[in-house]
Design brief:
Pfam families: ABC_transp_aux. With about 325 residues, the protein is an alpha/beta fold. It is built from eight helices and 17 strands. Strand 4, helix 4 and strand 5 form a beta-alpha-beta unit.
Length: about 325
């Protein structure tokens, strides 16, 4: 005898996607880069991207020697190996010709010179180590490296979001903005001023870091290339998305994908999870600790003293 269970309900999302496909704008072709140990996209994110109107395929530049002409957006999800010099030139030409690329760092501290050089050409320097934030971390994860990036409101990417919306990134890399760049950089997620870049050998460099940003730079023919970077591909981790639906990780990521298109809009409605979900609470700070720990202890001790005095009377 067989039985089946459902872990989500997606009628609203599928219906909205069907309406968009009939009344929406032109279809967009999104290629995921392969050949560098990139991570597979989780099922929730793949489904959300399809509902947002993207037709997806994979490209391996080392084999094809080119980026497809119909590539509207190139997605690089957590590479664990460096680019070859030929691939670096291909991607640089693609961006300078008006292409769009979204780059998510992997959970690795290895140094990839060609990837770093590509980011630096768009005014962003990848710092050594993982980012810890003493002010914006989640205590329930038991780590300063599980952080809630502060949303930079008022941008095209974060339109409709507020500073109270929560994101979660684990073992994220950080970026600094170059002062002498000709690129226009828009911060999307940042740390607090109490953050540090911590290397595996224990070195700490305090500072305020970018966790996600959009960089635009004019190419040689006048076209504007758009490079979006995120410090960790945990932003779209399937386990995080399904366990913490109160986060805006998925919405933010889809906004990053669609914001570069004139007729782009995030119409992807996530499936309603039927599984057990968990609340996420950022670092409560001293006031919350006072109300949650100190005050109850004071009341308890005061009650014990009053009880003891009355017992002795």
């Amino acid at each position: 005898m067989f039985s089946s269970t459902e872990d989500s309900f997606d009628a609203e999302g599928l219906l909205t996607s069907a309406i968009r496909s009939v009344t929406g704008g032109s279809e967009k072709y999104l290629y995921t880069l392969s050949g560098h140990g990139e991570s597979e996209l989780s099922a929730p994110i793949s489904q959300a991207m399809e509902k947002a109107g993207f037709t997806m395929a994979t490209v391996t530049p080392l084999l094809t020697g080119t980026i497809p002409e119909d590539c509207d957006l190139l997605l690089v999800n957590g590479p664990t190996a460096d680019l070859s010099q030929e691939e670096y030139t291909l991607l640089e030409d693609y961006l300078s010709g008006g292409g769009q690329m979204v780059f998510l760092c992997s959970d690795s501290e290895e140094n990839f010179p060609n990837w770093s050089a590509l980011l630096e050409s768009y005014g962003l320097t990848l710092v050594d180590g993982y980012i810890a934030d003493e002010e914006r971390y989640y205590p329930q994860f038991g780590s300063l490296f599980a952080i809630a990036g502060a949303i930079s409101t008022g941008t095209e990417v974060t339109q409709g979001m507020s500073e109270q919306d929560l994101t979660l990134l684990t073992n994220s890399r950080g970026f600094t903005q170059q002062e002498d760049t000709d690129a226009v950089i828009t911060p999307v997620l940042t740390t607090s001023s109490h953050a540090s870049a911590v290397t595996l050998d224990g070195q700490e460099v305090p500072g305020t870091y970018l966790l996600a940003a959009v960089s635009e730079r004019a190419g040689t023919d006048g076209a504007t290339g758009r490079l979006t970077v995120l410090g960790s591909n945990s932003l779209i981790d399937g386990d995080i998305l399904s366990s913490y639906p109160n986060l805006v990780n998925e919405t933010l990521f889809l906004n990053l994908l669609t914001a570069g298109f004139e007729d782009g809009s995030n119409l992807s409605i996530p499936a309603k999870s039927l599984a057990v979900t968990y609340n996420t609470i950022p670092n409560p700070g001293l006031w919350s600790a006072l109300y949650l720990v100190v005050l109850p202890l004071v009341i308890l001790v005061t009650g014990l003293i009053v009880w003891w005095k009355r017992r002795r009377q």
